[in-house]
Design a protein that fits this description.
The complex is a heterodimer. By secondary structure, chain A is α+β, with helices and mostly antiparallel strands. Chain A is 52% helix and 18% strand. Chain B has a single domain, classed as P-loop containing nucleotide triphosphate hydrolases (Rossmann fold, 3-Layer(aba) Sandwich). The chains are: A alpha+beta, B alpha/beta.
Chain lengths: 781, 240
């Protein structure tokens, strides 16, 4: 007997025939799941990427816990190699010869670079991730540490080493060392040609290296194992970790917010699509039952009917999510400075599995109900027109002085309140996501502007190149040359010199960053969260981390020990500076001792009206000359974090809006199917295609207006909560202007997003309805 | 009495003229209508008769502009409608044709009055004029008391009266009725028949599709027979 087995197979085949008969609905189901799965995959990947990005990358790249600089003349290669077997050492790489050189790029100072000679990027410790180009394998080639682009050298550019024998290095690649073990890498044979050696670097991994004291003990062990004077310097991975920690989880709040919106909407739409598909198939179920299909076979048939497009949607969705994640994670890795990030395998499994389980669960209820119906009940349910509600709405609409198709369209949602609610919810979720995305982009744009002072300070003079920093100390004469050059420029409106050093504040453990400015700084545009910017000696501003660490508040008196003097000052304001490092700002008069050549950090410059920043920068740099360690740069607006965050927000909101549009499309499609006979009557009575289109689009206008009324306050609240959550992660408060990004005119405009989603979603089925021949519509039921 | 000549050529002044019309629903199947020609003069009442599946409803759909012929031409109220676009066809239907369906095809969520008003509103008639015309028709059909009722709560005969009122609201040149008594009991069917005859007596051009010979004979001036999609002959009805 082969009948029992064949029965099951045939039931599935029958159902597949049913699915093919409802191709559009199958496509919508597949598309919704594609978008939902892609969003879920991308969201999970981003959450993974933003959750401890440094630690993940550090582990993946076998980051060096300790970078030790040694003098090779003091110890033999064998002696250095023996440190690999020291207790506690789990990995070692090197020695790599290194040289510290002054460089120029495009005729301008490019700063001081520490270059290491490595024959390959890989190794047991500090696996350098090549992000562009290739590794340096021959003479005259260099791989720079850091991402490609961003206004610096590009592949093929030449970086000249000054002061040496005219060595020119062609940029052949960009790599990323998680602990920034060097500013660039050359072939080992190139190092001696660059000039005097600055030693060699040894890279270690240790079994215990989680704290500064453990690292000190590790260093002591290495130092003790080598001849005296061999170790000339060392760098801990904890410094790189603390630098990246501030950025780590800032994106988490908005990724979570979008993920929740996307997930809630996916559940809603999938359940609606499946219920609709099942309800639309009642007649077929009845017929199949009447010819002998068992309830169990009906359930299987139905699950397989939605299962096939769902499976296809989930499979394509996970592929799409992975593809979308490539550029996004590339940007994310750049922003976090972690080389590379990939979609974790569990995200590619969890997202489609979750969506598939969700679909099956959503389908199971209606399928079970279909299985339990008797054949006659199913046929009757499939044939019965879904009517009986909304009479009052139609009557009211006919009394209104509106074109008849508009009136009937506006009344239609009342005939299927449950379906209307689903449409309304989908539109509301989609509109919330779009308005939230606009708001969050604006908030982040403002935060970026405030943080980088890009609106008020179009030009800054800073030490040039990636090698600029504590080891590169310009002279007082070079500083004075900058001041003179700025004064001499006719385009200079005003400028302030900023000095930075660390100070001590009683009550704050560890050092406090101090910024001292010369001259009037009221125009600088620091974002003030509470209080005001200082305007007299004896006043300082501080960041949120300072207030948190010190327990002080705006209005309190603070004692600052600058190293050369101990002064007291009143805290007059809390400024926006996203960092966990406590920072204090004041004038050079308030913070004596900071205004020295060693502490000079930058000049902030405002330009006269009509002066272009690019032209001004060129003019200042020409005046300073190539030998100056200082160089003028234009402000680039937001940093990388803001750029990636804003592009991510755009991508996520677009996906949510697409899913919302598909949700609307599905409900309108189901309604046109239900009402196809009525639509035929309208046409027979003379309703023109344009009137039909208007009427069907008007089905969703009412829900869209209500959805907009819900979405606007929801998006504003979500934006405020998310920005505060992000700020909290970044250890800062937020100036009120960052969240005040929704003036009424903008909100009114943004609320049209609901209408746009609804109309775009309804347009396709409305066009199909408008194009249908009346005789065909009248025959179809 | 049936005349078995298989064409029915029109004369100038015909309101409906169908020339060599063919309609095939599937390119490789038998046509539902094959090379049919007929005409209907102004004020004439013509019954189209034939067994189920003979193509009579298809012919009515083509005359109403609800469907397009595969071949041939259809001219109604002086306009060739087989070449019109969907919008123009809809406008044409609203202004020139009234249709009465076997199963009434009323909109259940609209009141009787709103059902009757709808074609006028779609055609852009003024609200006041449309209401006045609808009120007059409801009176004439004897269902004025039901103007605020919903069709689902009415009898079959009452519903068909609403459908007739709706078909007449734009004062069409041509009234097309597809088995107008098919869903009614015989007494109610006769009532509707008398109503249609009174319309014909008032000069309304009427094409009546039926498979009931008695109805065709009684209410039409001319009877056109269709069998297997072809014109099988014409006869004379009682109205002549």
């Amino acid at each position: 007997m082969i009948w029992p087995r064949l029965n099951w197979l045939s039931s599935v085949r029958t159902a597949t025939g049913g699915m093919l008969r409802h191709k559009v609905q199958a496509v919508v189901l597949g598309m919704v799941l594609l978008v939902s799965t892609a969003s879920a995959t991308l969201g999970l990947a981003l959450l993974a990427a933003t959750s401890g990005p440094f630690q993940h990358a550090f582990n993946a790249q076998d980051g060096a816990h300790l970078t030790v600089t040694v003098n090779p003349a003091r110890a033999s290669a064998a002696h250095l190699a023996r440190t690999r077997s020291l207790p506690g050492v789990t990995g070692m790489a090197g020695p790599f010869g290194q040289a510290t050189v002054q460089t120029q790029w495009q005729g301008q100072p490019f700063g001081q670079l520490t270059l290491a000679g490595r024959s390959s990027p890989g190794g047991p410790v500090d696996d350098v991730v090549l992000t562009a180009g290739r590794w340096a394998t021959g003479p005259g080639q260099i791989v720079l540490n850091g991402p490609a682009g961003g206004g610096g050298p590009a592949l093929g550019d030449v970086v000249n080493v000054t002061g040496a024998r005219g060595v020119s290095l062609t940029v052949v690649g960009f790599g990323s060392s998680i602990t920034n073990s060097a500013d660039g890498w050359v072939a080992p044979a190139e190092v001696p040609l660059l000039g005097p050696s600055s030693g060699a670097q040894l890279l270690y991994r240790f079994a215990s290296s989680g704290t500064a004291s453990q690292i000190r003990a590790d260093l002591a062990e290495v130092t003790g194992a080598l001849p005296p004077g061999t170790v000339t310097g060392a760098g801990s991975w904890l410094a790189a970790e603390s630098q990246s920690e501030g950025n780590g989880a800032i994106m988490e709040p908005f990724v979570v917010a979008f993920a929740l919106i996307g997930l809630a909407m996916a559940v809603l739409i999938v359940a609606n699509v499946v219920s609709g598909a099942v309800a639309a198939g009642y007649y077929r179920i009845g017929v199949l039952k009447s010819i002998g299909l068992t309830p169990a076979q009906v359930v299987v048939a139905y699950l397989s009917r939605v299962g096939v497009p769902a499976l296809a949607g989930c499979a394509l969705g996970v592929v799409a999510g992975n593809l979308l994640a490539v550029p996004v994670l590339h940007q994310s890795a750049d922003a976090y400075g972690v080389g590379s990030q990939t979609v974790p395998w569990w995200a590619s499994v969890l997202a489609p599995t979750g969506m598939l389980v969700l679909t099956v669960l959503a389908a199971f209820g209606p399928a079970l109900r279909a299985g339990r119906l008797s054949a006659t009940q199913a046929i009757a349910a499939g044939r019965a027109p879904a009517s009986g509600r909304g009479y009052g709405a139609y009557r009211l609409a006919s009394r209104l002085r509106l074109p008849r198709p508009v009136g009937m369209g506006l009344a239609a949602p009342f005939t299927r309140p449950a379906r209307t609610l689903v449409s309304l919810a989908a539109i509301a979720f989609g509109a919330t996501a779009v308005i939230f995305a606009f708001g969050l982009s604006s908030s982040l744009g403002r935060a970026a502007g405030i943080q980088t002072l890009s609106a008020t300070v179009p030009v800054q003079v800073q030490q040039q190149g990636p090698g600029g920093g504590p080891n590169q100390v310009p002279t007082a004469a070079q500083d004075a040359a900058v001041t003179a050059a700025l004064r001499a420029q006719p385009g200079t409106a005003r400028f302030a010199e900023a000095y930075e050093n660390q100070v001590k504040v009683p009550g704050v453990s560890g050092a406090v960053n101090a910024w001292a400015f010369s001259g009037d700084t009221s125009w600088l545009g620091y974002g003030v969260i509470t209080g005001r910017w200082y305007d007299a000696p004896g006043q300082v501003d501080v960041n949120t981390a300072f207030l948190n660490d010190s327990g002080l508040a705006v209005g309190d008196i603070v004692t600052v020990n600058t190293g050369s003097a101990q002064v007291t000052a009143r805290i007059v304001g809390e400024v926006f500076h996203p960092s966990s490092d406590p920072t204090v700002y004041g004038s050079t008069a308030t913070l004596p001792g900071l205004a020295s050549a060693a502490n000079a950090d930058e000049w902030d410059v405002a330009l006269r009206p009509g002066v272009t920043a690019a032209g001004y920068v060129q003019s200042v740099n020409a005046a300073l000359g190539p030998a100056s360690p200082w160089g003028a740069t234009t402000q680039k607006g937001g940093g990388k974090f803001y750029t990636i965050a804003i592009s991510l927000i755009g991508l996520l909101s677009l996906m949510v809006a697409v899913a919302a549009g598909l949700g609307v499309l599905n409900t309108v499609l189901m309604t046109t199917r239900d009402r196809v006979h009525d639509l035929g009557i309208y046409k027979a009575l003379g309703m023109r295609p344009g009137q039909m289109l208007t009427m069907v689009v008007c089905w969703v206008v009412g829900p869209a207006v209500i959805a907009a009324a819900i979405a606007v306050p929801a998006a504003v609240a979500l934006n405020t909560a998310t920005v505060h959550a992000m700020a909290g992660t970044a250890h800062t408060g937020i100036p009120a202007s960052v969240t005040a990004v929704f003036p009424p005119s903008r909100l009114a405009l943004l609320s049209l997003a609901a209408l746009a989603i609804a109309v775009v979603g309804a347009l396709a089925p409305a066009s199909w309805a408008a194009r249908a021949r009346p005789a065909v519509a009248l025959r179809t039921e | 009495m049936i005349d078995h000549s298989v064409t029915d050529h029109g004369v100038p002044g015909d309101v409906i003229r169908v020339d060599g019309v063919t309609k095939a629903y599937q390119s490789d199947g038998l046509p539902a209508l094959a090379d049919v020609s007929m005409s209907v003069a102004a004020g004439e009442v013509v019954a189209v008769m034939g067994p189920s599946g003979s193509g009579k409803s298809t012919l009515l759909n083509l005359i109403a502009g609800l469907d397009r012929p595969t071949g041939g031409t259809v001219t109604v109220a002086g306009r060739r409608i087989d070449t019109l676009g969907e919008s123009a066809l809809a406008r044409f239907r609203a202004r020139h044709v009234g249709i009465i369906f076997q199963f009434f095809n009323l909109l259940d969520d609209l009141t009787v009055e709103d059902n009757v008003l709808l074609p006028a509103q779609l055609a852009g008639a003024s609200r006041r004029q449309a209401r006045a015309r609808a009120g007059e028709l409801l009176e004439r059909m004897g269902i004025a008391d039901f103007r605020d009722s919903y069709p689902a709560r009415m009898s079959g005969g009452q519903r068909q009266r609403v459908a007739i009122a709706r078909a007449l609201v734009n004062e069409p040149e041509v009234l097309l009725a597809d088995e107008p008594t098919g869903a009614l009991d015989s007494a109610t069917g006769q009532e509707i028949g008398r109503l249609l005859r009174s319309l014909a007596a008032a000069g309304q051009t009427l094409v009546l599709v039926t498979h009931d010979p008695e109805m065709a004979e009684r209410y039409a001036a001319r009877v056109v027979h269709i069998v297997d999609g072809r014109l099988a002959g014409t006869g004379v009805g009682a109205l002549r």
